[in-house]
Amino acid sequence: MNATEVTRRVRxxxxxxxxxxxxxxxxxxxxxxLPTSPxxxxxALALGGVPIAWFVMRHRPxxxxxxxxxxxxxxxxxIVYRCRSCAGEERTGVHPxx
Length: 98
Hints:
alpha+beta
C-alpha cells in the first residue's frame, strides 16, 4: 500500500474505533456495568487506542522504488513518509488534525 492510502485508512479506522469505544463505554455505564464518572470518555479513548495501535503496526506503507517500509518523517503542514533504505520521500497531501 502506498503512503497516502495507509494514512487515509488509519484515519478512517481511528475514527470508527474511537466512536465505537465511546458508544460501548457509555452504554455500559448506562446499563450499570460501569460506574458513572467524568473519566469515562478518557477510558473510551484508551480502549479505542488499542485497535489503532494494532492497525498501525500491521499496515505500513511501502516504498514504490525499492519496496522497503517507510516511516513518518514529517507531520506538519502535511504528513510525509521517508523510505528507510533509499531515502525516497512520499508526500501524502493529508494534513494532521492537531
